[in-house]
Design a protein that fits this description.
The chain has five helices and no strands. By secondary structure, it is mainly alpha-helical. It has one domain.
Amino acid sequence: MPPGTPGEIQPPAEPVAPWPTQQQGFRSPMQYDWRAGWRSAITVGVVIGILSSAPYVGGVLCCLWTLGGGAIAAFLYQRNSDQFVVPLSLGFRTGMLTGLVAYAVNVLAVVAQLLAGRGAEIRRHLTEQMQNSISESGADAQTAAAFQRFVESMQTPEGFALIMTLSLVVLGIGFVLFTGLGGVLGASILRRNRK
């Protein structure tokens, strides 16, 4: 201190070290750990994809698999990333990654079934379901005739390819959204358990 400074004045404070940066190992709670996210997504997504493509339990419980799988993926993300609390947005992101992996596994299973010669069986099953829905809908004659023409056009290879493509797109959107919501659900449950 310069000469003549009164004794009550405190000396200047010591410089404070800056907050640790990401390079020093600090991760913000809102920063996504991609390594932990992909590890969780692959672990759970493969199981969901296999269960969803199973003949008898896949279609009926598909929404349950995706919601539950997203929640489990959020739990695994918390464990793999060493985060105390997983924000809902990161739970959604982890769930969406899980949905992408599950969708990819499910598409591979469908393609394998088509290549194994089950395409005719799948086409027949879809046609039966559509014709049942026509008869049960109670639609007027004009609508029923238009729907019947649609079913007949599906019998062509091009029509079947179009229906399969549209079905896979809708399925992909469903997988990603439902597992994302499951991730939010899982993150919410984890937050509640931490309080």
